[in-house]
TrEMBL record:
This is CDP-alcohol phosphatidyltransferase. The chain crosses the membrane at residues 54-77, 113-131, 169-191. InterPro entries: Alkaline_phosphatase_core_sf. Keywords: Membrane, Transmembrane, Transmembrane helix.
Length: 598
């Protein structure tokens, strides 16, 4: 058999087999239909729409309406919780009118690209508005896109300490998913609306013209609904504000470097620094979130004021007397390190960039002034420090005890690693009771943390002789409130905050009453007000400050400050900026200015 012909089947192969092989070859050579998910989805959608036309139309209209509502809501969204309300969303956004005029005029591909990018930008502005809401609610200020990203790590740590790791991971994951979904939905919504306007150009033109005239009319006449202007350009204004904020931040960074190089006491010789405190036992103490609201708010004040009065009398009985005033903090609701560094540097350190600038400088801190004299052993007790703390060098502290160096074996109280009473007892045993090197006295810096939010659970005072390694607090912590319950309840947060301040003040003043000497000088103050949800949306940034001593001559030196006698400053007691305290303190106790100009 001749096998060279075209239709000849090779020996040993059936005609059926040959046909199957040929069909297979043809199938492999032919292009296969696309099975990409989007193509499959589009085909399925068309088939479903053909079978259910009425439902398809209703669904299409519903999706379009939801897309329009989402875009408009994002365009007019305010950036503070107090401004939220229905009237804020019943507005005509100028940005939507402009988009409706521009998008239909573009060719299809550029239109889709511009619409998608506009949706992403709108998503970013919505996230920034939400961040502004959160920062205003907790820190009393807007979010700074240049400086504040580093605070998210601290926020995550705070949530983990308050709610637990599992709950925190779930919350963080949920927020990330929600943000990504927002970006996708807004991009798809703007693309959908742009395509719809292009599909019906005549109707789109008429609608845009009507909306534009309505916006101009409302703007010109100042028409309002419930006090809110109907004509809105919220997003455009927000973009301008963000741009100005970024520009101001970058400008502030350069200007503050120059300010930090100027120091009224930068060249003061060691022998002329705090001569009137030589031989004294000086203790500076910050109480977390101890703000003016604790003393004057009608919910918190009764308990706190009663505690301050009781402790003033107890200290007087032990021979101690106090004078108290107000300082306006550089921070609010959090970022305690800004309050600490502002007090100690004499500079207004109101953001993270300024903080980094000062920490890297040789600007004299109040605590470093004591070390510079050579007459003081300088020690820090920092129960809130749980990692490396390079700031020790700038603060001029010879030794620092962090959360892991105080021997605590009890439970954490939410964010606070240990109760203030335990930290003070450890300070007494490890530092205050120990002899200082010959010819020296001691200056200490303590930062107490029990009054840190979320104020649940709160420690209770126990017998000082029973503190041991802190295990005594296990039952107290277990019986206390759960952080999640207090965080969600504003009234309880305010009540528990007041109780936490009572605890911290009691622990500190009992330590002084128990262990203070004729040479002890205690300066204690708050670092900032509590979050606005507790202190109120219009609360001041003032914090109380007190100087306590047995030696009457030491209080006489600050008589011209006109502070109130006792631990509770009067409502009309002098109010200074926190940044003025360093120079006033140095001057009051005999320091001589020798300016440094950079």
């Amino acid at each position: 058999m001749n096998g060279g012909g075209r239709g000849v089947v090779p020996e040993g192969m059936s005609a059926l087999q040959s046909a199957e092989d040929v069909a297979a070859e043809v199938t492999e050579a032919a292009p296969r239909p696309s099975r990409r998910p989007w193509t499959v989805w589009s085909a399925w959608r068309r088939r479903w729409a053909e079978r259910h036309p009425a439902a398809a139309r209703a669904l299409s209209v519903s999706v379009t309406v939801l897309a329009a509502l989402l875009v408009v809501a994002a365009l007019v969204m305010p950036n503070t919780v107090v401004r939220l309300g229905p009237a804020k969303f019943l507005r005509i956004p100028a940005e939507a009118v402009i988009g409706a005029a521009v998008l239909p005029a573009l060719p299809r591909r550029p239109r889709v690209v511009v619409a998608a990018l506009s949706g992403v930008l709108l998503g970013a502005m919505t996230v920034l508005n939400a961040l502004d809401m959160g920062f205003n609610q907790y820190l009393g200020r807007n979010f700074n896109v240049v400086l504040d990203w580093s605070l998210f790590g601290d926020a995550e740590s705070y949530l983990e300490d308050s709610l637990g790791r599992t709950e925190t991971l779930a919350a963080v994951g949920g927020v990330i998913a929600l943000v990504l979904l927002l970006f996708v939905l807004l991009a798809l919504s703007v693309v959908r609306l742009g395509n719809l306007l292009a599909r019906y150009p005549a109707a789109a033109t008429r609608g845009t013209l009507v909306a534009g005239v309505a916006w101009i009319t409302c703007s010109s006449l100042g028409l309002q609904v419930a006090g809110v202007p109907v004509a809105s350009d919220r997003t455009a204004n927000a973009l301008k504000i963000q741009a100005r904020r970024v520009s101001a931040t970058l400008k502030d960074e350069a200007e503050f470097r120059k300010v930090a190089r100027v120091d009224a006491y930068g060249n003061t010789p060691a022998g002329q620094l705090v001569p009137d405190l030589r031989g004294k036992d000086v203790v500076f103490t910050f109480i977390e979130s101890y703000g003016r609201s604790a003393i004057e708010d009608p919910v918190m004040a009764p308990g706190v004021d009663r505690t301050l009065d009781i402790r003033t009398k107890a200290l007087a009985k032990a021979g101690f007397h106090a004078k108290s005033g107000w300082l306006t903090s550089a921070t609010y609701g959090g970022s305690s390190w800004l309050g600490h560094s502002t007090t100690m540097s004499g500079l207004w350190i109101s953001n993270q960039q300024r903080y980094r600038t000062v920490m890297a400088s040789d600007h004299l801190s109040l605590t470093e002034a004591f070390r510079k004299t050579g007459a003081f052993d300088t020690v820090g007790v920092m129960p809130g420090v749980q990692k490396g703390w390079p700031e020790q060098k700038w603060y001029g502290l010879d030794r620092v005890y962090n959360a892991f160096q105080l021997g605590y074996r009890g439970p954490k109280f939410s964010w606070s690693t240990m109760p203030d009473q335990y930290a003070l007892q450890q300070y007494q045993e490890r530092v205050h009771s120990k002899p200082v090197p010959a010819g020296k006295s001691r200056m200490s810096l303590l930062i107490l943390t029990s009054s840190h939010q979320p104020w649940a659970p709160i420690p209770k005072m126990v017998d000082w002789d029973r503190l041991g390694d802190g295990s005594v607090f296990k039952g107290i912590e277990a019986a206390g409130n759960k952080a999640a319950d207090v965080i969600a309840d504003t009234t309880r947060s305010r009540e528990e905050y007041g109780k936490s301040i009572q605890y911290s003040v009691t622990a500190l003043t009992e330590w002084l009453e128990r262990y203070g000497t004729k040479d002890t000088v205690l300066v204690f103050l708050g670092d900032h007000q509590p979050i606005s949800r507790v202190s109120g949306n219009h609360a001041s940034r003032d914090v109380p400050v007190s100087v306590v001593a047995k030696d009457p001559k030491l209080l006489d030196k600050i008589a011209d400050w006109n502070w109130t006698d006792g631990l509770r400053p009067a409502h009309d007691a002098p109010v200074w900026k926190m940044s003025s305290f360093r120079d006033r303190f140095l001057k009051a106790y005999g320091s001589t200015p020798h300016p440094k100009h950079g």
